């Protein structure tokens, strides 16, 4: 415990004494006396106590307050002040006292998970998890916010909320919290319900977009090294996972593959970050109304080209160079003439040592896979790597004075030879472009020699422009791969979520033009954040006239005006000076100082120092003026453009092309002309040799449409979207006439367009913070002088304290009066209007505090907690009304049902009485019997919803025997079978007493029943075998291959699963692991099938979960199939056309929640058929299962048709029982649809094309090209099933027709013979009446049994053959249990 020694009152002393009693496992002093300030927080006291006692401060400690002897212990929050707690103690307990007095403090260790150590002793110990949101802090200061973030950080909670803003601390270490199961856990959960996570922000943005039908964006900010790029990758990973709906498309794969490609070409290792993004990007993901990704656009901003040729000696060039040089194979090294990294001038750095060579090799393999995912084929990759090698060789070009002294000579010779070979240009033209320049005069052209500095500048400019053009080309083709054709149609509306991953704030030892542009962009984004969080919020409060105390914040608008405002902004002065040939960097600096010497944001330096200082919102930063003008006009020289355009490599000409669309069209035209020339030449040679002539091919070649030209429209669309950051056409023209725009002007234009795009969406903000300056793994030195400066500096320039204050004191929920009335109409009185008085009465009635809401002129303002309370109250009230309505509806329905049943019972009783009284008088019951009958039926109706068979003989056989006077001997049939035989037999009266006595007929019938029983037993054996095989799967998990796009961890062994590696993921519970870890699984799948009733979900659930003994086929699917068969078989394009998207969503929600209440007749038939296809697509494991996918493909590849058919049906027998029955019902449905092809235009092939992707999918979706190759095979497999079942259906229907015709013919013959034959045998003595045999026989014939071998001549029912048979023979032939009969009558596949 701890006792506060307060001999002096705190208000009279600047320090007080605290006595702490440690309760720790290690040996420490019994008591620790501390001298602290009266305002010292608990965190400070713990820190001081740990230093005094020599504790390990990497562990967690808690300070507990003990009040009363034996009382509960209360853990103090780190923001609380212990001295204030002491002042609440009794006066006698405030002075020094022993532990037995009952009032003291305890210092004890805290577990890694946030739990206290042994001996906490009370229930009032609170958890630190309550600080998920910084707005819940009781005291808001920099120290309390810092302490709260530190506590969460050391508990591995790197995410914290500040109301709706997410604060992310970079631990410089991977945490296993990004696996697919976390995406599933945060799916459709409100922000704040679960612990803070970046997936929660992605999920809320996704579902807000769908609910409000508004575009969303996520703005990620923070300085370099704070983890912005990684956060953007996590967001994209989650957004694509949410949109897949159980299956992945090529668009998601392309989006995920674009990230590694852009990072390889645009990221580099710096002093602050090992993977620093040297460009800004905005990724806009477009969605359909259903939430499925339909396309995306990647926009890049201001690539740092100067890093290619110059950087600090401790930093590296772009990642892709090291990937290529270290990871390339020997064949690639020879093909691209690669050297060792240290042999290139552009890669030189001090203490050059690639200690991560093995990681670089792995990254190169992942880069290959990512480039294939975005559509770069092997030849294209080779072209890209060849350009990269040429850029590196450019840096090795050196200059020396020529022998005549008039110019420069380029060398070495081997470098020039290799460079010209890689670029495929003439070596003499290359040397001329690197050493000379042409000056266009009025009448002629003057050739001038470069000086040494000018030559080096031209060489570096060529390398930078070439790399920039390559990067633009990569971004352009990634966007073309992500394009959806519907995006080009203006009439098609779409939703989108944008992710802005802008630069990090940079302050290096030497800051130049690049840092100046980057920091200006951060100023603009920070101003956008202030506008949304502070300015617009407080202006709205003032306009509404509510009580509000303004919160001051640091506005950076003055700094933005200093840099960009016309006409005196620094950018505009720089453009003017760049156009003057006599201007220099020094004159530019003097003009800066002259125009802004009195600006508070501009700090001039001494006269001799070539630099200036800008007062940014993060602090003062010094910029070196050197090369500002040159970098602002850093364009490709016309001589370089002409050289590269003369290249024999088409890819090189494409990079330098001023118009990608025009170059694309010209390339197609040139290829066409080349192909025609080749054909003509080949034709001439063959004609000269006297062989086949090609004169018939020429017209076809010339008139055949070139469909590839249609892609020019999509390419033009992409160029229009990204034109703001592409290299202007005038820069790539060999003879530009107009002065091209400057780099700063291009940058400002692209940045303004970016902010306009972001401004049109609803924003979410993520603040990323570095945990330390040394890039140490999981280290947070919050109380050392160095790191506290770094961390507090980030908190201050992001305005975190002010942000938390306005979020805590502000009102997050705002409704207009009309919106409030519409939303909470159920809670308001019936006569209430949207008047503020009615709204205020409601809020007061609910007991909300006056400080938690305010009513303005037109709006109602609520705190987030009160809004949630209001929403919960609304939900409860709505549910109460729903229960009342359901209660009344059920009562009315049951009453109506009861009256109908009662009326039906009375009608049956009356009809039975009249029938018996007129037809068979001996069977008329007595009055006592009639009373018992009515009494029995009335009692039954009062308890049940259906009527039992009346306890009297109602069969026509008993009536017939009654007419003959043999009612005593006859047996009444207590059940009535309805079949084709009985429906036909209702037309004749005398055919029910027949017997089969002929041995041939009996033999045929016996063979038929025996075959059916054998098929039934075979089906039972196969079903049990398949069931055992299905249950032997790894504890119910359904694994499929899963390509990792962000680093994840195996859920079983804990080791990393690297990017682009393949893992195994359960499609149901999202467990992910290595292939080698499958044998280590010891836990059941959380969605494992059981034998219970189907659950509440009907889409996206395993088939075995949706089936049971009551529902052998999933209920929702059966409803939809029966509805289509009853109403839509004659609809043209039944499964080819799609219904309304809004109606489909409505019906899907209805079938998902309560399918019994769904009325399918209210929706179009195409809406229902669309949901049928969706039901199959959303199955976690497809109907034909991932396990048998390859087997079905191998079966289709067999040469003989009979072999294919046999192999396919053999694999069907291996399906699980639920899948087999569902497939059987689906194929029967498709056969019925195909049968009406004349009306619905849906052939077996058309149905196979539609349903093959739904029921037969590959589990390996990592290679879309491989999956596309299997489309024809899967379609063929499904078509085989439909066609074969269609053939069997046709044959069986034909057999049934023949059987019914034979039966009718036999009946007519029997009728005629019975009329002309005198009976000589007493019928009542027959042991087995002909009715029983005949009805059984016709029932068997009328079902889906195999009728093969049964023809008209094989069943002859003759009245002459009705003789008594041996009863033992009958028992031998027809002896069968009820179970066997039921199985025999069950239809097989």
Commentary on this structure:
The model is unreliable at 1-13, 112-129, 692-710, 783-788, 920-994, 1021-1033, 1090-1095 and 1320-1389 (pLDDT under 50). The longest helix has 56 residues, at 864-919. The chain is globular and about 135 Å long. With 1389 residues, the chain is of the alpha+beta class. Helix 7 crosses helix 10, helix 15 (513-544) packs across helix 16 and helix 39 packs antiparallel against helix 40 (1201-1212). It has a seven-stranded mixed β-sheet, with helices on both faces. Strands 1, 2, 3, 4, 5 and 6 form a six-stranded mixed β-sheet that branches. A three-stranded antiparallel β-sheet has the order 19-20-21, with helices on one face. It is found in: Cytoplasm. InterPro entries: C1-like_sf, Kinesin_motor_dom_sf, Myo9, Myosin_head_motor_dom-like, P-loop_NTPase, PKC_DAG/PE, RA_dom, Rho_GTPase_activation_prot. Belongs to the TRAFAC class myosin-kinesin ATPase superfamily. Myosin family. One of its GO terms (cellular component) is lamellipodium. Residues 14-112 form the Ras-associating domain.
């Amino acid at each position: 415990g701890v006792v506060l020694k307060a001999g002096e009152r705190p208000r009279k002393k600047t320090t007080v004494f605290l006595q702490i009693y440690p309760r720790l496992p290690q040996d420490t002093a019994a008591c620790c006396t501390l001298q602290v300030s009266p305002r010292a927080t608990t965190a400070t006291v713990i820190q001081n106590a740990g230093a005094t006692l020599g504790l390990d401060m990497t562990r967690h400690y808690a300070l507990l307050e003990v009040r009363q002897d034996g009382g509960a212990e209360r853990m103090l929050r780190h923001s609380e002040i212990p001295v204030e707690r002491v002042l609440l103690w009794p006066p006698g307990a405030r002075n020094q006292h022993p532990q037995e007095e009952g009032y003291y403090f305890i210092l004890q260790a805290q577990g890694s998970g946030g739990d206290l150590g042994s001996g906490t002793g009370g229930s009032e110990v609170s958890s630190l998890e309550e600080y998920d949101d910084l707005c819940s802090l009781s005291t808001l200061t920099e120290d309390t916010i810092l302490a709260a973030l530190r506590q969460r950080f050391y508990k591995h909670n790197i995410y914290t909320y500040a109301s709706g803003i997410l604060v992310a601390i970079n631990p410089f270490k991977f945490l296993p919290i990004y696996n697919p199961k976390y995406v599933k856990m945060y799916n459709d959960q409100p922000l704040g319900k679960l612990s803070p996570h970046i997936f929660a922000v992605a999920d809320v943005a996704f579902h807000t977009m769908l609910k409000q039908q508004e575009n969303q964006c996520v703005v990620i900010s923070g300085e370099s090294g704070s983890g912005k790029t990684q956060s953007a990758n996590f967001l994209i990973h989650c957004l694509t996972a949410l949109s897949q709906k159980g299956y992945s498309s090529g668009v998601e794969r392309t989006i995920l593959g674009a990230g590694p490609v852009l990072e390889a070409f645009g990221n580099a290792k710096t002093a602050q970050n090992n993977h620093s993004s040297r460009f800004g990007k905005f990724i806009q993901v477009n969605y359909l109304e259903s939430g499925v990704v339909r396309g995306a656009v990647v926009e890049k901003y201001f690539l740092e080209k100067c890093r290619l040729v110059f950087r600090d000696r401790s930093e590296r060039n772009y990642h892709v160079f090291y990937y290529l040089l270290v990871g390339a194979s020997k064949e690639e090294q020879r093909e691209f003439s690669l050297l060792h990294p240290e042999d290139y001038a552009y890669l030189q750095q001090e203490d050059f040592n690639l200690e991560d060579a093995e990681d670089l090799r792995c990254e190169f393999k992942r880069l290959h896979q990512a480039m294939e995912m975005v559509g770069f084929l092997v030849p294209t990759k080779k072209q890209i790597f060849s350009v990269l090698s040429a850029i590196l060789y450019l840096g090795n070009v050196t200059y020396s004075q020529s022998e005549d002294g008039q110019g420069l000579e380029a060398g070495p010779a081997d470098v020039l030879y290799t460079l010209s070979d890689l670029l495929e240009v003439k070596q003499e033209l290359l040397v001329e472009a690197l050493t000379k320049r042409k000056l266009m005069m009025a009448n002629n052209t003057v050739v001038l020699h470069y000086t040494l500095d000018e030559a080096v500048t031209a060489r570096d400019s060529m390398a930078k422009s070439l790399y920039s053009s390559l990067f633009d080309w990569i971004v352009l083709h990634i966007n073309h791969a992500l394009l959806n054709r519907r995006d080009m149609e203006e009439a098609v509306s779409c939703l989108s979520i944008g992710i802005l991953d802008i630069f990090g704030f940079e302050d290096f030892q030497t800051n130049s033009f690049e840092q100046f542009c980057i920091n200006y962009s951060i100023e603009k984004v920070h101003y956008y954040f202030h506008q949304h969080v502070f300015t617009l919020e407080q202006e709205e409060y003032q306009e509404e006239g509510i009580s509000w105390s303004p919160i001051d914040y640091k506005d950076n608008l003055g700094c933005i005006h200093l840099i960009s405002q016309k006409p005196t902004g620094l950018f505009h002065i720089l453009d003017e000076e760049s156009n003057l040939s006599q201007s220099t960097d020094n004159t530019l600096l003097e003009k800066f100082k002259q125009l802004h010497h009195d600006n508070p944001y501009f700090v001039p330096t001494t006269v001799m120092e070539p630099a200036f200082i800008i007062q940014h919102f993060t602090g003062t930063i010094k910029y070196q003026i050197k090369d500002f003008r040159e970098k602002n006009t850093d364009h490709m020289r016309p001589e370089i453009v002409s050289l590269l355009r003369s290249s024999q490599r088409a890819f090189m000409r494409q990079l330098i092309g001023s118009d990608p669309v025009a170059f694309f069209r010209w390339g197609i035209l040139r290829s066409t002309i080349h192909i025609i020339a080749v054909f003509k030449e080949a034709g001439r040679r063959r004609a000269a040799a006297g062989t086949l002539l090609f004169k018939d091919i020429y017209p076809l070649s010339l008139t055949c449409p070139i469909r590839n030209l249609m892609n020019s429209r999509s390419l033009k669309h992409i160029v229009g979207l990204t034109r703001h950051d592409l290299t202007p056409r005038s820069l790539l023209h060999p003879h530009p006439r107009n002065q091209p725009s400057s780099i700063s002007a291009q940058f400002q234009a692209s940045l303004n367009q970016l902010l306009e795009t972001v401004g049109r969406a609803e924003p979410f903000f993520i603040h990323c913070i570095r945990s330390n300056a040394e890039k140490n793994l999981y280290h947070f030195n919050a109380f050392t002088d160095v790191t506290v400066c770094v961390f507090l500096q980030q908190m201050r320039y992001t305005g975190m304290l002010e942000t938390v204050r306005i979020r805590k004191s502000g009102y997050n929920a705002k409704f207009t009066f009309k919106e409030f009335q519409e939303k909470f109409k159920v809670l308001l009185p019936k006569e209430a209007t949207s008047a503020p008085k009615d709204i205020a009465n409601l809020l007061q009635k609910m007991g909300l505090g006056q400080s938690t809401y305010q009513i303005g002129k037109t709006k109602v303002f609520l705190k987030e907690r009160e809004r949630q309370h209001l929403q919960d109250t609304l939900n409860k009230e709505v549910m109460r009304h729903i229960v009342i309505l359901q209660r009344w509806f059920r009562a009315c329905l049951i009453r109506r049902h009861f009256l109908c049943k009662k009326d039906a019972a009375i009608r049956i009783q009356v009809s039975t009485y009249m029938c018996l009284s007129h037809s068979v008088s001996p069977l008329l019951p007595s009055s006592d019997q009639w009373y018992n009958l009515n009494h029995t039926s009335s009692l039954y109706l009062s308890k049940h919803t259906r009527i039992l068979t009346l306890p009297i003989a109602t069969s026509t056989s008993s009536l017939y025997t009654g007419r003959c006077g043999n009612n005593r001997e006859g047996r009444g049939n207590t059940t009535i079978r309805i079949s084709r035989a009985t429906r036909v037999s209702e037309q004749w009266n005398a055919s029910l007493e027949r017997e089969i006595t002929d041995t041939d007929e009996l033999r045929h019938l016996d063979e038929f029943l025996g075959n059916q029983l054998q098929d039934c037993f075979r089906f039972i054996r196969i079903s049990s075998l398949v069931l055992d095989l299905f249950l032997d799967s790894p504890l119910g998990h359904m694994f499929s291959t899963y390509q990792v796009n962000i680093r994840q961890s195996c859920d079983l062994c804990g080791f990393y699963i690297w990017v682009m590696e393949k893992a195994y993921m359960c499609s149901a519970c999202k467990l992910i692991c290595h292939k080698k870890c499958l044998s280590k699984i010891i836990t059941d799948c959380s969605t494992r099938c059981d034998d219970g009733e189907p659950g509440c979900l009907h889409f996206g659930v395993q088939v075995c979960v949706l089936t049971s003994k009551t529902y052998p086929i999933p209920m929702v699917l059966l409803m939809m199939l029966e509805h289509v068969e009853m109403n839509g078989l004659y609809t043209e394009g039944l499964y080819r056309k799609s219904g309304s998207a809004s109606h489909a969503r409505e019906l899907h929600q209805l079938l998902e929640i309560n399918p019994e209440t769904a009325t399918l007749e209210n929706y179009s038939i195409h809406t229902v058929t669309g949901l049928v296809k969706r039901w199959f697509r959303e199955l976690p494991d497809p109907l034909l299962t991932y396990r048998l996918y390859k087997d079905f493909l191998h079966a289709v590849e067999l040469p003989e048709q009979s072999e294919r058919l046999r192999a396919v049906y053999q694999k069907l027998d291996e399906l699980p029982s639920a899948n087999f029955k569902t497939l059987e019902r689906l194929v029967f449905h498709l056969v019925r649809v195909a049968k009406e092809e004349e009306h619905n235009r849906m052939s077996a092939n058309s149905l196979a094309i539609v349903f093959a992707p739904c029921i037969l999918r590959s589990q390996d979706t990592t290679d879309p090209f491989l999956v596309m190759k299997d489309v024809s095979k899967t379609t063929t497999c499904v078509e085989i099933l439909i066609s074969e079942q269609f053939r069997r259906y046709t044959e069986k229907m034909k057999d049934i027709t023949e059987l019914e015709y034979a039966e009718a013919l036999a009946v007519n013959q029997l009728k005629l013979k019975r009329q002309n034959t005198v009976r000589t045998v007493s019928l009542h003595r027959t042991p087995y009446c002909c009715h029983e045999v005949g009805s059984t026989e016709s029932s068997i014939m009328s079902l889906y049994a195999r009728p093969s071998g049964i023809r008209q001549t094989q069943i002859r029912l003759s009245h002459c053959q009705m003789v008594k048979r041996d009863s033992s023979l009958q028992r031998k032939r027809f002896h069968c249990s009820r179970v066997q009969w039921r199985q025999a009558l069950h239809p097989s596949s």
